[in-house]
TrEMBL record:
<dbReference type="InterPro" id="IPR006140">
    <property type="entry name" value="D-isomer_DH_NAD-bd"/>
</dbReference>
<feature type="domain" description="D-isomer specific 2-hydroxyacid dehydrogenase NAD-binding">
    <location>
        <begin position="104"/>
        <end position="275"/>
    </location>
</feature>
<protein>
    <submittedName>
        <fullName>Glyoxylate/hydroxypyruvate reductase A</fullName>
    </submittedName>
</protein>
<keyword id="KW-0560">Oxidoreductase</keyword>
<dbReference type="Pfam" id="PF02826">
    <property type="entry name" value="2-Hacid_dh_C"/>
</dbReference>
<dbReference type="InterPro" id="IPR036291">
    <property type="entry name" value="NAD(P)-bd_dom_sf"/>
</dbReference>
<keyword id="KW-0520">NAD</keyword>
<dbReference type="InterPro" id="IPR029752">
    <property type="entry name" value="D-isomer_DH_CS1"/>
</dbReference>
Length: 310
């Protein structure tokens, strides 16, 4: 029984092999470019696999995504659609996203970008903002990560709204669903957080039309995928004051090129895709446990739905 591992950075491929081999001593674990007997390969653990990467392995039982999203797997036009995809989600990743969302919502709420700029100018200005109970925050995407983040914001006292494809019920959060609920949701969001999965329906959703429907001076946090954002529309909305600030953790091209205008825009905060970065010990334990459970039962809680894209 062989597990193959693929990551764009070879040192990370080697690291995952080492960690997983220690946790799964009865398995053979190899890099995807040196798989040994292709017929013996039953699981693939991957991040951003190359097109056609899975075609040589006719006995694959499942593909394991090294993250909560599966868009990087579905991007393979030669993907064998019969093979289930397992997401890597756990309490550690959820906690990290809760922390990231709370941190940056509070930064926008307390207008820390202005305070930081004032410090550089040695300018003393006591800004008065409402308490959290007087601020409305909306989260797009109410899956594991979004639902948990919404609960965190509600616990902090924010008027918290949530929007998803289908209706969800979350204590302390006013939820909306589908196209019919979008207007009521978006028009009230003073701070908007995008945690949507990337699908054909959500690509480019953060565009000029959406920004125009937000209250003037709203701020945006994107920790979903870079392809959710129309970059030129964001810059235009920031420059004309429709948006006050944006925090971006994900980008169309990663790493973000050094010449990209986002780096120097005064109203954009760039973070290098760290919102819910999988950590070494926890990630390997989650992956190993999911493979063992799927091998035994043919099911895991984090099985993705490829037709929906998440």
């Amino acid at each position: 029984m062989t597990i193959i591992v693929s990551h764009p950075h070879r040192e990370k491929t080697d690291w995952w092999i080492k960690q997983l081999q220690a946790l799964l001593p009865n398995w053979t674990i190899r890099p995807i470019d040196d798989p040994g007997d292709a017929d013996a390969v039953t699981y693939a653990v991957v991040w951003k696999p190359a097109t056609g990467a899975f075609l040589p392995f006719p006995n694959l039982k499942a593909i394991v995504s090294l993250g909560a999203g599966i868009d990087h797997v579905l991007a393979d036009v030669e993907l064998p659609r019969r093979v289930p995809i397992i997401r890597t989600v756990g309490t550690d990743l959820t906690q990290r996203m809760r922390e990231y969302v709370a941190l940056h919502v509070l930064r926008h709420h307390r207008d820390m970008p202005t305070i930081t700029a004032n410090q550089r100018e040695r300018h003393w200005q006591q800004l008065v903002v409402p308490p959290a109970t007087g601020r409305t925050v909306g989260i797009m995407g109410l899956g594991n990560l979004g639902g948990s983040a919404a609960l965190t914001l509600a616990a902090l006292g924010f008027e918290t709204l949530g929007w998803s494809r289908t209706k969800r019920e979350i204590e302390g959060v006013t939820t909306y669903a589908g196209d019919a609920g979008f207007d009521g949701f978006i028009s009230n969001c003073e701070i908007l957080v995008c945690l949507l999965p990337l699908t054909e329906a959500t690509a480019g959703i953060l565009d000029a039309e959406l920004f125009a429907r937000l209250p003037r001076g709203a701020s945006v946090i994107n920790a979903g995928r870079g392809q959710h954002l129309v970059e030129a529309d964001l810059v235009a909305a920031l420059d004309d004051g429709q948006l006050s600030h944006a925090t971006l953790d994900v980008f169309h091209v990663e790493p973000l090129p050094s010449e990209h205008p986002f780096w120097s825009h005064p109203r954009i905060t760039v973070t290098p895709h760290i919102a819910s970065l999988i950590d070494a010990p926890t990630g390997s334990r989650i992956v190993a446990a999911n493979i063992e459970r799927f091998e035994q039962t043919g099911h895991v809680d984090d099985l993705a739905d490829a037709t929906r894209g998440y």
